Amino acid sequence: MASDLLPRAMHPISPARPHLRVLQWNVLSDQLAVNFPRVAESVLDWPYRERLILAELTRADADVLCLEEVDHFHDLQAALSPLGYCGIYEQKEDWHRDGTAIFYRENRLVLEEKEGGTFDVRRQKYLLVKLRHRVLNCSFIVVATHLKSYAHHEGTRLLQVQQILGHLRRYEALPVVLAGDMNTKPQKDVYNLIKSVGFQSAYWNALRPSAEPEFTCLAYRESDVLRLTLDYVWVKGWQPCAVMTLPSEEDIGKTGLPCSKYPSDHLALVCDLTLSPQFRL
After folding, report:
1. Assigned CATH for 2-279
2. Mean pLDDT, rounded, for 44-50
3. What whole-number distance in Å separates Cα of residue 127 and Cα of residue 143?
4. Shortest CA distance to 89 belongs to which of 120, 68, 113?
């Protein structure tokens, strides 16, 4: 239930009528739900977090869900299927048990194509789908990804994004949503590259003037605090008309994320999008 979660609400940006709602979220892999010294073990257990993850997904009420660090895909699929969602999943390679998933609402969207891509560097994955909007009769692309972590790997992330952008060239005539845990800060190389090819960040200037959110990840480690903006919904051919607000540090409390009212160290981003005029029939 939404009452079990940190308070959030949709914040309008423009009066435009929304055509699509998208959620982007690194849900925190069960395998990686460790090293949160201020967080009670019971809060990190999968059954506790699963309930809150599903509560957040239900509250968002999005048409498309882009999820990273998913290692209980079948659990999520079983819970979301009765709500009208169909899911696609691509697992990482090597020692990882988690992967990337995209869920979409079948009563509003039709799957036309799906592709899983493996990065040439670090062998991580991205997931691409082509969907058709039943009401607008317009096709569009959604890419969900999780780029290489740690600050010193910006060069690796740059190569990974270049590979995604190269893949997207074959869909230049279509609107695109590019969502993910990019593991990069605003104005860094990866951010600037995506912006330079015509994408707009949905949260830019939405909650803070001429800025991204203060943070999308807040985690207290043994000797460090991760208070970073790492997650983005990039759009081309779409215009953001509303976003979901983000809780403050005071709202979250002294344990950081995850906490008893939120199941991941990353916050879900939710945005309403309207199709740019050139793509409307």
Report:
1. 3.60.10.10
2. 98
3. 6
4. 68
